[in-house]
Amino acid sequence: MALRHCTKPIDGTIPVQALLYDDEELLTTQEGVGIYEGQQKSPEHQNGTVHISTHRLFYFDAQNELSHSFSLGLELIIRTDYYAGLFTSSPKVTLYLAPSGLESDNQGTETDLASESWECQVCAYRNPPGLSPTAARVCALCGVPQSSISTTERSILPLSKSLPSSSSAIPELTSPDSIACPACTYFNSPSSRSCEMCLTELPRQSNRLAMKSAPTSRPGSPLDDVHVMKLSFRKGGDKPFYAVLKRSLKGKIWEVGSGSSTHNTDAPSLGDSHLIRKSGISGVLHNVQSSAQGQDDNLKDALKDLEGLMAKAQDMVRLAAELNEKLTASSTTTTLPTNGVSSSSTIALTPSTEPEEATFIRSSLSQLGLQMTNTPVTLDMMKDERKWYEELARELAGVLQGRQGKEGTGIMKERGIIALDEVWGGWNRARGVALIPPSTFLLVIPLLPLYTNPTIQTRTLGSGLTVLHTPPYSQAAFSARLVGYLSLAGPRPTIDIAMEEEISVSLAKELVEAAESEGNICREDANTTLIGGGGVGGAQLKWWSNIFEGYAWDGQVS
Amino acid sequence: MTLSTQTTPSGFLLPSIHSAPPFFTEQPNPTTQAIATDHWIRLILTYARHRKLFSLKVEDAETSGNDWDEILKNERINRKMLPSHLSNILNAMVKKNVAVYEPPKQTHSVVLYWRTPEEWAEALHEWASSTGQLNTIMTYYDITDPPINSELTNIPILLLKKAIAVLTRLGKAQVIGIAEGEGVRFFAGLGNK
After folding, report:
1. Predicted ipTM?
2. Does the distance separating the beta carbons of B24 and A523 come in below 8 Å?
3. Quick check: is A122 in a domain?
């Protein structure tokens, strides 16, 4: 089987979690998957479970899990295709695999590598087992590659030569494959990704070429070795699986993370360059670049979410329009019979509440700004807004004066004048839910005289305090009453007037001052006291009926 | 509460409004205050004429024991005029041309015109002719402090000059510069050279 070149047999009896490297993460699992090799079904792998990790793809055969299970390094996958399936044909994911330079004996050593602990020759750090091969190949402490001498003669040999601890740099200089650093012209090992002198990244193309040719002198073009493997999803789950696979491939954890690659000959140099990058100026630059990349990705994701939201908003607007149409339809049907049987009070009650609810829903929608994009709804809403305010005014009148039918206690049942804030608070307390914002409240207030009996009017006092009042508390009525009171009871301070009118002192002060500005009364300041007395800052004001008005001079004439 | 007129020790008949405490308070309502101010001006001028007082100062409302006590204070109702109120009334008087600030360029002291300069001119001429002092050169002092008290006793020089100026225009007087200052000569009437 050609796939043997790429895949690695595993013991399928072991749970997948146990097979993962320390720095590997399981992403998704899918049952009922069959494997195609090229265009043919692979008879040994027809029913199994496929796991995707950050580094590898695992296949666990359902029948013969011990011998037919295998793993595949994701770095081998060059390209993927997705086929949605047709009739009896199951959905398939096609994986195009890069040629693998692995020989069967190499696989063996790698397994050893990954599972053995070793001591770094440079810093003598004892590297623990369990890491993925790439990560295990370099010292976790100092980042120096594990000396190839201790293991096998492999691709890391030329690189290790360039290290100071290694024997000589001469073969490297003469090496035809060596890469000249674009910054300092130092000839680097073909397996290096960044310059050993200045850490500048080396040209990638030549690097890749070097990687292809340098480690194993395998002949032939890489294109000839492209293998095709298909995963056939007999029990579905193909779409989420493919999405995860794509993401995992895009993520290239085995390359950018603490690299772990199962059986790629490039792995050592990849790991090296990665670790070197981490520790120099170019490492800092790389970090900046990668974080910028991450931010960019996040931003793109967020924008995608926003687009999704906008798409949903369109739906919502359409929904609102439909709802509105339905409401209009139902209200017309209910209002028609109402005209006929308006004499019956019980039936008249029901339609009166229904439009209220409908109006409420509509105005809620319009308050959400949903009518903005749809012109017919806007017009409809505008009409209904007015109606809504009228309904609110009626409701507020009920709150203020008590319902006509039942003997309710309105806020203004006993009091003729009341400040606007108190009305607002009382009204919202009475409503309990769907509270009225002050802006709406202010729009409702002017409609109030139409629905109240006796008429409740609005009045703004000198200090800017706005009050609602019944006719006895209009300016003229109050002034007349005040003058009568003062002429009967004599001069009185504000507090006495407040007590007489049963209103708060500050409110009385406002009303009295309004009466004064009308010229109905005049004041006496205790500061004019000749001996003793005197109040602080006009606190000792006494109010007189206007003694100047109609006064005829009765003093000395000549 | 009914208010009644009152007669002061100096024999001045106070109006009933003088017994109303609000009369001593400045009213914020401009209409009401205008009425009150009018009454105050009339009271001040009448009293000034009664007592032959020529000047009124804001300080008169602050101190006691001066000529204006009887009207700026009312001990029966324990009320007094506040200086700021009086200052506003003086301002109103100047605006109505029944007083002028004297000395000029300040606002807390006025000379009262309880007679207009024309009325004073007439009184002056009458006095001069009745005392047989026509065609005689007189100093201002001779007029303001005559041996026998007259209406013109203690008249402020400012007012006197204005009255003389009125007479000069009518050809009934002539201002003459003399060694000690200025003198005046009164004539019998028009055409009298």
Report:
1. 0.76
2. no
3. no
